[in-house]
Amino acid sequence: MSKLYLSGNEAIAYGLIHAGVRFITGYPGTPSSEIIPTAQKIIKDQEIKAYVDWAINEKVAYEVAYGACLANIKSAVTMKQVGLNVAMDPFMNSAYVGTVAGFVVISVDDPGPHSSQTEQDSRFMAMTAKIPILDPSTVEEAFEFSKKAIQLSEKYGIPVMLRSTTRISHGRALVEVDDQIIKQELNPYFKTSKEWTKQLSRFAATPKQRLELHKILNRKIGEITKENIPRLFFNGNILILSSGAVFSYLYELIEEHSLQDKVTLAKFDMPYPLSRDTLMSLTLPQNTTLSVIPRDSMSREISQNKEKILNINKTFSRIVSIEETYPVIELQLNTEGRRNGIVPKEGELLPEVCEEILENLKLIKKRKIFTIPPLKRPSLCPGCGHRIALYEVKKVFGKKAIYAGDIGCYTLALNFNVTDIVLNMGASVSLGFAFSKTFELGNKNQDIVSIIGDSTFFHTGIPPLIDAVHYQVPFLLIILDNQTVAMTGNQKTLSTSKNFLGECLKPIVIEDIVRSIGINFLEVTDPYDYEKSLTIIKEAKKFLKERKEPAVVIFRHLCINTQEGLKSNPKKSVKISEELCKGCKFCINEFECPAIVFDEGTSKAMIDKTLCISCGCCIYICPTKAINLI
Amino acid sequence: MKLVIIGKGGQGVIFFSRMIAQVASMKGFLVRSTEIKGMAKKGGTVEIQMKIGEGLSGVVRRGSADLVILLSEDLMDYAKTFGDKVFTFTSEEIEKALSSVPMRYVNTFLLGIFVKKTALFSCDDFLKIFDNQNKESFKKGYEYVQSSTRNSSKRRN
After folding, report:
1. Do B57 and A292 touch (CB under 8 A)?
2. For residue range B8-50, what is the model confidence (pLDDT) as tens digits?
3. In terms of domains, do A221 and A235 share one?
4. Which end is more exposed in chain A, N or C (fewer Cβ atoms within 10 Å of the end residue's Cβ)?
5. Residue-range domain boundaries for chain B
6. Which of A299, A327, A360 finishes a domain?
C-alpha cells in the first residue's frame, strides 16, 4: 500500500483499474480529462493488458465502452457533463438492455460553471435514464466509489454513473492505493441471438420485448432503492439531506459553527434511486464507517442514535435538501430546498454559499459578504497560431461578416471580435448553414464564416458539412488545425500516428475527409505565412461570391503550448518603436496578445518580455508600423 | 491550516503548492487541496486552495484563510477576499530570483524565501524532497533572505 497525493480524476483512474476495468474510452472535456491519461500511465507502468484511449466523440466512446461490457470485459467511459448530452442515445437504451460485465459511466459536472456552456446536473440525466448514481463527497470517495460502481453494476446488471464535480475531480488528497494490481485473464464472451429465447432477445429486442426490458429495469431500480440508505451525522431537529462535494462543506460548517445539536446531516452516497419510504423509517446501522471522517467525531454521532428507528415527521421540524446543481434528492423525497428559495437556484454551492443557506435556515447569524474583484479575462496564449489566423480572416471579411465559432481555445477570439456565437461542439458548421440559408431566403447578402478546431471538426463538425455540400450552401469554414485537443490539456487527436504505448495508428487527414465530401474549394496554409494566408482567404471569398457552395480553408500550425510546437516555432524577436507608436490601442483591442501591454503612463504599447515567445506575428498588425523585428 | 496560493499560469503555482503538500504529508498531516485553472494557459489566473490537518474538502471559504501566498502582485485585491494575511514577494526578491537561477527554478528560489521568512515549515524537510537543481535553487532563495536581513540589520546599526 502506498499513499499518493492524487487528484479526484487520478483517484477515479486508480479505482477503475483496481476494480478490474480493462477497457476505458472517453472524449476530453474539463474537468474530466485526466482520467484516461492516468489510466494509460498505470497500465503502461504495470504492463497490464487493457484498452484505454480516446474516441472521436462521447457517443462513440459510450457505445464502444458499453460494447466491451456486453462482451464480458469490465469497462468505463469518461466525459464532462455536456459530453453526456452527445451520448444520450446509447445512455438511455443501455439502462434497458443492461450490462454483462461491470460498466461505469463517469460524467463530471461543472457547477459554476468554470469552463462549460451549462451547469447541468448529470444526476438528473441518470434519473431520466433510470441509472443509479454514486456521488463522491471527497477525493478518497472518488477512489472508493469507482470500485463500488463496478460492484453495483455487476450485482444488478445495470450501468452505474459515477458523477464527480470540478471540486472533486480537480481536488487533491492522500489516497491509499495497492502497489500491485492483480493481473487477471480476460475472458471475452458474447451471447449471440441464437442463444436467447424467443420471448426475450435482450440485445436485439423488438418494441414488444422493450416493454419487458423496462419492467426488468424498474425491478432492478426498486431493489437498489431498498438498499440505498443514507448515513446520518450529528443530532439536531433540522434534517439536511445532501450528496457530493456539498456534503463536505456542510459537515465542516456544522462543526465550525457548533451546530451539532441543531442539525442532522444525511449523506446519500447514491442520490438516485431514492424513495420516501426509506426516509420514513430510517434505521441507523450500528457500525457506519466513513473512512474520510475522523473516528472521534464519528463515534459521538453514532452512539447517540444507535439502533433508533426514526419517524422523520416526528423527529425533525424541517427537512431540507442542499445539493448541487439540480433538485434531484429534493424532487424524489419532496423536501424543502431549491423550490422554496432556501437554496440558490444557480451557481456553485461553495462553502460561503452554504453559509448563506444556513443563514436562511436561521441557524447562524449574518455573515460577512465579500465582493470579489473581477479577474482579467482569459486570452489566447502569446504566439498562438489561432490568433494570427483569425486576425487574417477578419482582415479580409471585415466586421460585417457573421463569425460562428465553436468549442475550443479559439472561442477566445470573441475578445477581438472574430466570434459572434458559440453554441456547442460542431455547431459552428450547422450555424454557417443556418445563417447562409436564412439570409438567402430574405434576399440579403451576408458573409458568413464558421470557425472550428481540428478535434471539434472530427467530433461533430463533419455531418453538418456534408449537409452543406449536399444542399449547396455557401459559407467559409475555417478549420484551425493545431494537431491537439489544446484547451483540455493537449490530448491526442486523430491526426496522431502513435498511441501512448508507441504503437502505430493510422493518422486521419482532414483534407482527405473534406475532399471526399465534395468540397470544391480547399486550401491549406500556415497562418504564420501572412501574405499567403491573406491571398487564400481572398480567393475563398471570391469563390463564395461566384459559386453557391461551401469553401474550406485549413490553417495548420502546431499548438505552442506543446513542447514540440514551441521548439519548432520560428524565433523572431520584436520591439515597439516609441516614436512610431501613436497609442491607438489597435494591437490591444484587435489582436489581444497578452505579451503586448499598454503603458497608461506613456500611452504607448510595450512588449512584455516575460510572456513574449518571439513568434513575430504582431509585425503585420500595427497601423503605424511601430512593431518591427529586432 | 487553511492556505490559498494565487498566481498566474507559467509561474509554477501548482508545483509550489505540491511541494508544500508533500512536506506537510511527510510530517503526517492530512492534506487536501483544490486547483482552479482558468481557460487560458499562459498568464491566466491559477488558484490553489489547501487545508492541512483539517476538514473534508480542500475548498477554503472566503475570509477564512490563515495565509494567502500571492505570486502576482496585481491580484492583491482578489487575494484579500480569502484572508487578511497575505504573503507576497518584493520586486527585489523576484528580480534576484530571475537573475540567480534559470527560469524554471524561479519558483523553488521563491519557495526558499517563503520557508525562511514564514518559518511555517522546516528547511530540511524541503531539502529531502527536491532533486539537485531544485535543491540548489531553494537553498539560494533561503540563504538570500539570511544575507539580505543581515544587510538590512547592518544598515540599521
Report:
1. no
2. 887 888 888 999 999 999 999 999 999 987 665 666 789 999 9
3. no
4. N
5. 1-88, 90-149
6. A360
Q: Taking CB atoms and an 8 Å cutoff, what residues of chain B touch A350?
A: 59, 61-62
Q: Which of A167, A173, A611 sits opposite B42 (nearest CB)?
A: A611
B25 CB neighbours in chain A (<8 A) are: 3, 5, 174
Residues A209 and A139 in one domain: yes
Indicate the pairing of strand A51-54 with strand A23-26. parallel
Whether the pLDDT of residue A230 is over 50: the answer is yes
The x, y and z cell numbers of residue A455, run together, are 478535434
Grid cell 491566466 in the structure block, residue: B44
Domain that holds residue A259: 228-360
In sequence order, the 6+-apart residues with CB closer than 8 A to the CB of B99 are none
Mark whether A222 and A232 lie in a shared domain: no
Report residue B153's pLDDT band, with 50, 70 and 90 as the boundaries: very low
Task: Verify that A72 and A180 share a domain, yes or no.
Answer: yes
Residue B3, φ and ψ in degrees, nearest 5 = -120, 145
Q: What is the pLDDT of residue A285?
A: 41
Residue A267 near residue A229, CB atoms below 8 Å: no
Return the CATH number at A522: 3.40.50.970
Contact A172 B63 (CB under 8 A): no
**Is B123:B95 a contact under the CB 8 Å cutoff?**
no
Q: Which residue has the cell 524537510?
A: B125
Task: Report which of A266, A268, A260, A257 is spatially closest to residue A235, judged by C-alpha positions.
Answer: A260
Question: What ipTM is given for this predicted complex?
Answer: 0.90
Helix (H, G, I), strand (E, B) or coil at A452: strand
* Euclidean distance between CA atoms A524 and A538, whole angstroms: 14
**Domain match, A98 and A210 both:** yes
Q: Give domain status of residue A511, yes or no.
A: yes
pLDDT digits 0-9 by tens, A128-178 = 999 999 999 999 999 999 999 999 999 999 999 999 999 999 999 999 998
pTM here is 0.93
pLDDT at residue A294, as a whole number: 42
Best of B56, B81, B106, B129 to mutate (most A CBs within 10 Å, chain A): B56
Residues B39, A378: C-beta atoms closer than 8 Å: yes
For A119, the grid coordinates are 451547469
Q: Which alpha helices (H) appear in A398-477, and where do they start and end?
A: 427-441, 454-456, 462-470
Asked if B32 lies within 8 A of A251 by C-beta distance, the reply is: no
Total count of domains within chain A:
4
Closest residue in B to A381 (Cα) is B42
**CA count, 13 A, side-chain hemisphere, A333:** 35
Write the CB contacts of B148 (distance below 8 Å, at least 6 apart in sequence): B92
In B30-90, which ranges are continuous DSSP H helix?
Answer: 76-80
| Least CB–CB distance from B57: residue in A249, A355, A368 | A249
Residues of chain A positioned with their CB less than 8 A from the CB of B81: 370-373
Domain boundary among A314, A344, A360: A360
Task: Find the CB nearest A373 among B18, B35, B78.
Answer: B78
Level-2 CATH architecture, domain B1-88: 3-Layer(aba) Sandwich (3.40)
Q: Do B78 and A139 touch (CB under 8 A)?
A: no
CATH number of the domain that residue A301 is part of: 3.40.50
Chain B: closest CA distance from residue A487 (Å)? 7
Judge whether A373 lies within some domain. no
